[in-house]
Amino acid sequence: MKIRFKPYFIAIVSIIILAMPSVSASSQDKPVSIKLGVVNLDDVTRLSLMSKDIARQIDARRKKFRDEIKKEEESLRKSADNLQKQRVILAPEAFRKEERKFRQKTADLQRKVQQRNQEFIRLKAFATRKYEQERAQALLAVAKKNNFTLVLRRREVLVSADFLDITKLVLETLNARKQSFKLPDDISKIEN
Prior knowledge:
Layout: H1 7-19, E1 36-39, H2 41-47, H3 49-86, H4 92-145, E2 150-153, H5 167-177
Parallel strand pairs: 1-2
């Protein structure tokens, strides 16, 4: 059985080995202790109250937008049906004029959908940045409080003992720090 090591793992082990004090003849040297922690950031994100609140708000806005677009699409369908009925009634020039108006409405709706999709992408990126900042602060607080020398992501670690897992501590700290996050109403004011 061949074991493949991730580059991160090899780099971290190398750092730990280099950080360890060299063996000295002096008996007065204090041994340096290294305290490790492993955190599953995916679990923290999935279970945190703040990320759930952000997801709920984004879903609510997306649903509201979908409902709005459905109404406009239905209105366009009715306009298309009416336009087809008027084809035999209207003079060719009048029909072309109405057809241009209809095409303009369709193009406007497509632009609106594209614009809103871009807004949702920006909103989600903004919320993700804010969430990750809070999560990093919670992780830093746990590391300082418990004197961790090194904290690793779970996905970068091949094998670890359960007592090294600090995911629950980070989650509890994050939930205590920030349970919700208010998304801005005006998406245009979001910094990139």
